[in-house]
Design goal:
Number of strands: 6
Radius of gyration: 18 Å
Strand content: 15-25%
Number of helices: 5
Strand order of the largest sheet: 5-4-3-2-1-6
Distance between the termini: 79 Å
Helix content: 25-40%
Length: 160
């Protein structure tokens, strides 16, 4: 009998390992794209020729964590808030970035209820991490970068 049949080894990572891999990839994409770990608290706008300006808000800085909001500079007609938007946490010690929620007022418990089943919570986190991964890839392809970021206060002064 073959050893491969007696002891099957998973060719693909488990779901949790895949999610942690997405978190790590999102951290590195975000760090390469906008280098938020080098930015101070405040709002920054990235403008390229596609007509869709991107806004990055560095909300809080902690010893090993950055709290960020990434959104387009356009307002949703129905809600009056910028959309799409992702609230992010970058952990510099673990080199991972997670999406805590995806719209203003849509904290996890708003979207899933107070005590969601683990499977539901995991699937939601996987969707949010995948969304962020694809969005960061798209932004890089469009030409957004650390070099295109301008502090919003500088942008306000330049337009006056």
């Amino acid at each position: 009998m073959s050893l491969a049949i007696e002891k099957p080894i998973a060719a693909l990572p488990g779901r949790f390992a895949y999610l942690m891999g997405l978190y790590a990839e999102n951290y590195h994409r975000l760090a390469r794209l906008f280098a938020p770990q080098a930015l101070g608290v405040g709002s920054y706008v990235s403008t390229v020729d596609d007509g869709l300006d991107v806004r990055l808000d560095v909300i809080e800085r902690h010893a090993y964590t950055l709290e960020l909001k990434l959104t387009y500079c356009m307002t949703d007609r129905d809600t009056g808030v910028t959309s799409p938007s992702a609230w992010l946490r970058m952990y510099s010690d673990a080199h991972v970035a997670e999406v805590s929620h995806c719209h203003a007022g849509k904290h996890l418990w708003h979207a899933l209820g107070p005590f969601p089943p683990t499977k539901t919570l995991f699937a939601h986190r996987m969707r949010m991490a995948s969304f962020l991964n694809r969005w960061l890839e798209y932004l890089a392809e469009q030409g957004h970068s650390r070099g295109t970021l301008i502090a919003e206060r500088e942008l306000t002064v330049a337009t006056k």
